[in-house]
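Q: I'm building a small set of examples for a reading group on sequence design. Run inverse folding on the following structure and report the sequence directly after it, with nothing in between.
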């Protein structure tokens, strides 16, 4: 199967709630826990990778056999997702509420932003959102509300702590079973205000 040259498969999302996909996720997770000190490590890792690839090929087979799928299907889906996010983020009270209300979209866009498969067009659209955010923070700096430093650094102090705490908090066996997000916001605010 010409998987590596197929325009129908640019990104293959894996959902732990779908049994076939959960199996692949489990194989990947197990591969990371193999110890280099273990006897036959190289053979075991090769076997694990072969199993992962085999399962991925099985998941891709129906997509590759579908001759009606457009080459830009993934790009179109991502564009629709980004429009959805842009529209709904502005409705949310704050970043945490957005992440809570639209968890799947939030996790998807986070993965898409960091994907090596992201197209130039996707990156340009994401950068436009970033430029708009930078302008808001730049205004806060100019008005003396925020610390006199890079707006990107200030954004990082706001976004990443909330994002990471939220992702940990939503895990079934979280180290943070109870989180006072108002305190998290206050801590972020204290970190960036002048």
């Amino acid at each position: 199967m010409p998987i590596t040259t197929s325009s129908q498969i640019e990104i293959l999302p894996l959902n732990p709630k779908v049994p076939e996909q959960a199996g692949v996720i489990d194989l990947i997770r197990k591969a990371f826990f193999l110890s280099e000190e273990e006897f036959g490590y190289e053979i075991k890792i090769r076997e694990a990778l072969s199993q992962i690839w085999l399962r991925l090929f099985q998941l891709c087979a129906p997509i590759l056999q579908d001759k009606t799928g457009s080459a830009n299907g993934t790009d179109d889906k991502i564009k629709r997702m980004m429009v959805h996010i842009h529209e709904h983020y502005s409705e949310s009270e704050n970043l945490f509420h957005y992440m809570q209300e639209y968890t799947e979209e939030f996790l998807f866009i986070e993965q898409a932003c960091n994907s090596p498969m992201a197209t130039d067009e996707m990156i340009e659209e994401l950068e436009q959102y970033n430029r708009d955010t930078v302008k808001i923070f730049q205004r806060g700096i100019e008005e003396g509300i925020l610390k006199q430093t890079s707006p990107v650094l200030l954004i990082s102090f706001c976004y990443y702590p909330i994002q990471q705490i939220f992702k940990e908090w939503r895990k079934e066996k979280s180290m943070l079973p109870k989180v006072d997000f108002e305190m998290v916001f206050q801590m972020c605010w204290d970190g960036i205000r002048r």
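The chain has a mean pLDDT of 77.
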